[in-house]
Amino acid sequence: MPAEDTGSLQTLLLPRPAFPSYKETLDGAAEKTQALVLGADLSAPLEAVRSTLTKISAWQQPDSPPPPPLPRSVSAPRGVAPAPKQLTSRVVILSFTNRGALNWLWHLDRAIGRARFPTTLRMYVVGDETRQALVSSGLIPAECIRDGSVGTTLDASHSSKGFHYDSPGFNKLAAQRPRIILHAIKELERTAAEAVVYCDVDAVWKRDALPALERLAPTHDIAGSRDDYLVCTGFVMFRTRSADVISFLSEWEEKLSTGSKVNQYVFNELLKAQARKLSIQRLPHEQFPSGLEYFHKRRTHNATALVIHANYFQGQAAKRGKLKEAGLWQDVPHASQA
Predict the structure, then answer these.
(1) How many Å apart are CA 202 and CA 178, to the nearest integer?
(2) What is the residue-wise DSSP string for 77-144?
(3) For residue range 251-279, what is the model confidence (pLDDT) as tens digits?
(4) What domains are there in the chain, each with its CATH number?
(5) Which residues of the chain have pLDDT under 50?
(6) Which phi-psi region, left, alpha or beta, contains residue 236 (left: φ > 0; alpha: ψ -120 to 50)?
(7) SS3 202
(8) N or C, which end of the chain has less CB nearby within 10 Å?
(9) Does the predicted TM-score (pTM) go above 0.85?
(10) 49, 68, 69: which is closest to 59 by C-alpha?
């Protein structure tokens, strides 16, 4: 497609096979199966234009039957990008659980609305029971659910049992994070998604955080919430179109492959080692506070918090108890009421 320099402006001629002129259409020079938009000569009488377009099946009266579909062999013309496989938001939320995360989904629904889940959420789960519980709840469409055992083998205990922090079982599940993020980035490569945000199920969405995350997505390779002096791996965003991010995630996955190391410490060691290659940003704690900041240091005002992560507390009972005390957690209503 030739470009012409006209002083301070640069013009670009659209490809003729995809965007033929009205004259090319009339003369038969345009290949109808490749044309996306047919130009019409509005200086001609309207009825004459409609008649011509009707003859080449490019115009229909309201009561006309639909035109026959194009042959399957027809593809987009050269130079015209194919349509994306699926529609997604600019930032897609990823989460991972080995048990029914109904409470977390209920709060996410209240923050962003479940109608947006198909374009904004990918839920990775371990075990058929977890999958069935999520689908039966009516809180999440089946199309949002993915197999959380990507790249490894998880036994029955990983699908139902809770594990203490830094235990072998906990570390093996936590080692799935880079695999899940890499899997999602690969799946989303032909979509509008500019970033994915990995979110633990103990990080409660109080309000819609997607607009704030979307503002950061184009400018930083990695943006994570704070966990004291570390970047927290339980709420962290990655650009989807960065070779440096893919390299970082692959190295993180490799270092966690034994299942014996704490994923967050390995993650932060890698961040320091690759700080010159990556654009790294800490998310503002006023909007994305850790449990320590929100419940103890009180740096964050209640009115500004978007997502509150209960990562300061250990054990699901302690986390949920503290969130309930602050009015941030509710037991899941019946699915029909949710």
Answers:
(1) 18
(2) PTTSPPPPSS---SEEEEEEESS--HHHHHHHHHHH-GGGHHHHEEEEESSHHHHHHHHHHTSS-GGG
(3) 999 988 876 567 888 999 999 999 899 99
(4) 3-55 (no CATH), 91-325 (3.90.550.10)
(5) 1, 70-85, 100, 158-161, 163, 166, 334-338
(6) beta
(7) coil
(8) N
(9) no
(10) 49
Rounded Cα distance between 75 and 71, Å, is: 9
Instruction: Work out whether strand 280-282 and strand 222-227 pair parallel, antiparallel, or are unpaired.
Output: parallel
- Number of neighbours of residue 230 by Cβ within 10 angstroms: 16
Query: In DSSP terms, which residues pair with 196 in a beta bridge?
Result: 92, 238
Helix extents (H) in the chain: 22-27, 46-55, 102-112, 117-120, 128-137, 156-160, 168-174, 176-187, 210-216, 243-255, 263-273, 291-292, 316-325
Token readout for 279 is 């654009």
Spatial contact of 287 and 306, defined as CB atoms under 8 Å apart: yes
Q: Which two tokens stand for residue 210?
A: 């997607």
